[in-house]
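Hey, I'm writing a tutorial for new members on how sequence and structure tokens pair up, and I'd like a real worked example in the thread rather than a made-up one. If someone can provide the structure for the chain below, I'll link this post from the tutorial.
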Amino acid sequence: MKNDNILDMSEKSRLTADITLLMLKGAGYAAVFVLAIWFVIAAMAFIGRILPEESRDTPDPINRSSLMIEVAPEVAQV
């Protein structure tokens, strides 16, 4: 087996260092993911702020109060 232990670390120290590096790498990936989601939310909030004030007062394009649910008439059973 090739010995590439250039820092002269013990096996336990090297294992600890490898695990720490992997945890920091995972934390970095998580930070990038969270910052990307934050950036998307911040961009949508910025776009919402630059819209004119009248756009916030417009009625809902789908008038849900006028939706009717049609119920089929009951069939008389003989």
